[in-house]
Specification:
single chain; about 110 residues; 7 helices; mainly alpha; elongated
Length: about 110
């Protein structure tokens, strides 16, 4: 299942309506309706994060249907993702050369630790 199906299932599980999710996230009902099953529209990372935080689930769960059932672990995953997102936003100010250097460092560390 994908984001749309997982979002639908989680809303049903929590007994929430799209209107309530809209009020809690600040995302318009029209936009949320675009994420319904059968639609090819995927949320922006900011909207996906707002939805995950509001529903108290991990982004991994919304995207894949997989993830920890442990709320503390889910929140930790969201914190890690937020930190990575903030780093990526900061990198927009980097030169192309600096970005390539950062990518090389990340690649090197990935090979070492993964």
């Amino acid at each position: 299942m994908g984001f749309a199906e997982n979002l639908r299932d989680e809303l049903e599980y929590q007994g929430l309506q799209v209107k309530e999710l809209s009020e809690k996230t600040g995302i318009s009902i029209n936009t949320l309706n675009k994420y319904r099953p059968g639609s090819k529209v995927v949320p922006t990372i900011d909207n996906a994060l707002k939805i995950a935080q509001t529903l108290k689930v991990s982004l991994d769960y919304l995207a894949t249907g997989k993830g920890s059932d442990n709320p503390a672990a889910s929140n930790l995953q969201n914190v890690d993702f937020i930190q990575a997102l903030n780093l990526a936003k900061d990198m927009r100010r980097f030169s192309k050369r600096d970005i390539e250097t950062v990518k090389a460092v990340i690649s090197s560390l990935s090979e070492k630790y993964i």
